[in-house]
């Protein structure tokens, strides 16, 4: 007699959708926070471009979201090798986007003109 065939474990049917739902909820909240931050740190020249997600605010939002997504990938994959490198990448990317999107009046740059 052949041994009974073992199928997929039943907890995966419940756990996988629940974890997926938690990840998408957390990612959407972080995306909204990145959008609010993109509005705050951007140049406020027009109200239309301020709220329009396909302009510079939307690009800035996606670039800021990459920084948060790097940490999410780290947490989901439970990556232990190179953990510090992922956090350094996230911090470096955030600082690059922040400096790039700041206004000229803020005088934030890696090199400043000595006057």
Write up what this structure looks like.
68% of the residues lie in helices and 0% in strands. It has helices at 10-41, 47-51, 56-77, 83-101. Helix 1 (10-41) runs antiparallel to helix 3 and helix 3 (56-77) runs antiparallel to helix 4. The longest helix is centred in the N-terminal third of the chain and has 32 residues, at 10-41. It is elongated, with a radius of gyration of 21 Å. The mean pLDDT is 80.
Brief write-up:
With 115 residues, the chain is mostly helical. Helices cover 68% and strands 0% of the residues. The radius of gyration is 21 Å and the shape is elongated.
Portion of residues in beta strands equals under 5%
Largest sheet: none
Could you tell me the radius of gyration in angstroms? 21 Å
User: So what's the overall shape?
Assistant: elongated
Distance between the termini: 89 Å
Q: Count the E strands.
A: 0
Q: What is the share of helical residues? A: 55-70%
> From N to C, what is the helix and strand string?
HHHH
Residue windows where pLDDT falls under 50 for at least 5 positions: none
User: With helices defined by DSSP (H or I, 4 residues minimum), what is the helix count?
Assistant: 4
| Overall pLDDT score | 80
Structural category: mainly alpha
């Amino acid at each position: 007699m052949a041994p009974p065939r073992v199928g997929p474990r039943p907890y995966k049917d419940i756990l996988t959708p629940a974890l997926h739902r938690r990840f998408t909820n957390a990612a959407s909240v972080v995306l909204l926070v990145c959008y609010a931050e993109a509005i705050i740190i951007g140049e406020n020249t027009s109200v239309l471009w301020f709220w329009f997600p396909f302009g510079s605010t939307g690009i800035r939002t996606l670039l800021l979201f990459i920084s948060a997504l790097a940490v999410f990938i780290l947490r989901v994959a439970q990556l232990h090798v190179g953990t510090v490198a992922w956090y350094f990448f996230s911090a470096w990317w955030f600082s690059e986007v922040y400096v790039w999107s700041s206004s000229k009046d803020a005088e934030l740059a890696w090199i400043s003109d000595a006057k």
